[in-house]
Amino acid sequence: MRWENLTAETGGTRHDRPADAALFGADAVTTRTFDTPEFAGITFHEIRARTILNRVPGASRMPFEWTVNPYRGCTHACVYCFARKTHGYLDLDTGIGFDTQIVVKVNAPELLRRQLASPRWHGEHVAMGTNVDCYQRAEGRYRLMPGILAALRDRANPYSILTKGTLILRDLDLLRQSAEVTEVGVSVSVGFTDTELWRTVEPGAPAPARRLDVVRTLTDHGIGCGVLMAPVIPFLSDEPARLRATVRAIAAAGATSVTPLALHLRPGAREWFMAWLGQHHPHLVRRYERLYADGSYAPKWYQRRITRQVHELAEEYGIGPTRAGMRRRIPQPGPAEEPTGSGPTQLTLI
Fold it and tell me: Could you give phi then psi for residue 206, rounded to 5 degrees?
């Protein structure tokens, strides 16, 4: 693994040090395995990072400028995860290696506290969970997030978290304390509620129903929580009946908003996802090759169609900022729509 060659240019530009300095050195790496069922087959590389606040590249589509990522690699093992390519920066495998070789920045809390106190830091918004999940399984053992949240709270620094992990509820008190002094945003990722699809496409992540329990608990404790409905997977979770079931469940959990995002397949993730698709849904391979022929993102017409459908359902079920904090009035389901399973889905221009 090329630890020394990983620079700020590779992992994100830092604001207060030379760009040619390595993020950590080989002498700072400790490799561990744990003889417990939840970590079977997983290797942890503990490092002492030299930076934790990373600037998002200017060409990025992300609506934020700074991130904190205490982990690299993710045991959620989502076959579509766009962050897989980042493991290649360390000469680690972007497939099974991304799922089982986890880099842990063990000094993240103390390093963040020091960087937030720098006179060169101006209190910009910090986004977490944007690369890999900061509440993945490893967080239960390493407990980095309490120190990170406390550092942000103590500086009244605004932040947001995106997660699939139920472990965020452990830090509910810290979230509430932070919300008293600064802006805090929490979103939970729930792309679909189909349990059979979840078991194959997100095998290491908590079940969708458990994630929706997180939304409900946070909302009940005064922490408004939105849902990133991502990814909507073409031909597998995009049928009208499935979209309706997912949005209805999100509304019932009390989400303040729902934002759909169609599957995108960047290099690294694309190869791994297509291999999975060939194994589990071989009849869809050619359709995906056509749909994603022009790049990593689904065509604009497809994205617009999904967005329109989800927004219409959200309005029907009363999801939205203007209704935040109100009890949802969930209409009783009418006659069941026939699911089409993994068969053809008509793609129409809008």
Answer: -60, 150
Question: Is the bond preceding 70 in cis, omega lying within 30 degrees of 0?
Answer: no
Rounded to an integer, what is the distance from CA 2 to the centroid of its chain? 26
| Residue 231 preceded by cis peptide, ω within 30 | yes
Report how far residue 225's alpha carbon sits from residue 175's, in angstroms, rounded to the nearest whole number. Answer: 12
Rounded Cα gap, residues 251 and 320, in angstroms: 9
**Which of 178, 192, 163, 195 has the alpha carbon at shortest distance from 71?**
163
How far is 43 from 326, CA to CA, in rounded Å? 45
Question: Could you give the CA distance from residue 229 to residue 287 in angstroms, rounded to a whole number?
Answer: 22
Closest Cα to residue 141, out of 170, 175, 98? 170
For the purposes of burial, counting CB atoms within 10 Å of the CB of 327, is it exposed (0-12), middle (13-18) or buried (19 or more)?
exposed
| DSSP type of residue 7 | B
More confident: 13 or 318: 318
What are the φ/ψ torsions at residue 249 (nearest 5 degrees)? -65, -40
Per the structure block, which two tokens stand in for 31? 């490799």
- Contact between 201 and 276 under an 8 Å Cβ cutoff? The reply is yes
Spatial separation of the C-alpha atoms in residues 139 and 149, rounded to whole Å: 13
User: Given its phi and psi angles, is residue 261 left (phi above 0), alpha (psi -120 to 50 degrees) or beta?
Assistant: beta
- Condensed to tens digits (0 to 9), the pLDDT of residues 41-73 reads 999 999 999 999 999 876 556 677 899 999 999
Token code pair at residue 280: 């589990």
H, E, C per residue of 106-140: CCHHHHHHHHHCCCCCCCCCEEECCCCCCCCCCHH
Whole-structure pTM value? 0.84
SS3 assignment, position 17: coil
Name the 3-class secondary structure at 85.
helix
Please tell me whether residue 262 adopts helix, strand or coil conformation: strand
